[in-house]
Design a protein that fits this description.
Elements (H helix, E strand, L loop, with lengths): L1 H8 L6 H19 L6 E2 L4 E2 H11 L3 H14 L7 H23 L3 E3 L10 E5 L2 E8 L9 H14 L5 E6 L6 H13 L3 E6 L6 H11 L3
Length: about 220
């Protein structure tokens, strides 16, 4: 393509088409020698969007860096957050951050239930012989968690972790309407449990999460 574009520059009067061939050919040559997978080529800004973004998230040097990259990319292009692999990478990083914060607060009483057999929750915290199951949900901080997603998560936690005394959802997103939160609390109460939604976007939110957990697990 680069060769055809170069030849066309000197043999035809129009310039846009031959110039595009040169640019695209050079880009494809660069991608070939770098060994990068092509998922989407943005000719307007010269980025290899999804494949490059996944590599950046995957290779970031900390969970917080992975979350920051994913958030910035999704803010610029919200469609990115619907990619399953990016969703998985983002959620795993966010879950790791929250779990690390809880381990700092509660020590061995906080257990990160990573892996395919997490019994319905991501993290458990035990205080006064009572146990809270925590599910983390990552999304754009300026968005609200949908009512259906919240209720589905609560139902899954109640069914998957029947030994929990409290079920807690921790999310980057704004909470749903009060009526939806009330329905979630009623559903948990019907199973003899308590429910709380906590918005958590940085370690500075740790004290609030600690207060919520201690309130729900008091003797």
């Amino acid at each position: 393509m680069a060769g055809a574009g170069t030849w066309a520059v000197f043999t035809v009067e129009t310039e846009a088409g031959p110039a595009a061939l040169v640019v695209i050919g050079a880009l494809l040559f660069f991608v070939a020698i770098m060994g990068r997978q092509i998922k989407e080529v943005g000719l307007t800004d010269g980025v290899l969007a999804y494949a490059e973004l996944k590599n950046r998230i995957r290779n970031a040097d900390s969970p917080q860096a992975r979350v920051d990259i994913a958030t910035a990319a999704a803010t610029a292009n919200p469609a990115i957050q619907h990619d399953p692999e990016i969703q998985e990478l983002s959620h795993a990083a966010y879950e790791e951050i929250v779990a690390g914060n809880l381990v700092e607060i509660f020590g061995q009483e906080a257990v990160h239930s990573s892996g395919p057999y997490d019994r319905g929750v991501d993290i458990t915290v035990t205080v006064n012989n009572k146990k809270a199951g925590i599910e983390t949900l990552f999304g754009l901080p300026d968005r609200h968690l949908s009512a259906q997603r919240l209720l589905n998560k609560v139902e899954g936690m109640l069914n998957g972790s029947p030994d929990m005394d409290a079920v807690i959802i921790v999310s980057t997103m704004h909470e749903p309407p009060l009526s939806v939160l009330g329905a979630a609390r009623d559903r948990a109460a019907a199973n003899g449990k308590t429910f709380q939604y906590v918005r958590w976007n940085s370690n500075s939110d740790g004290p609030q999460l600690e207060r919520v957990l201690r309130d729900h697990l008091q003797a």
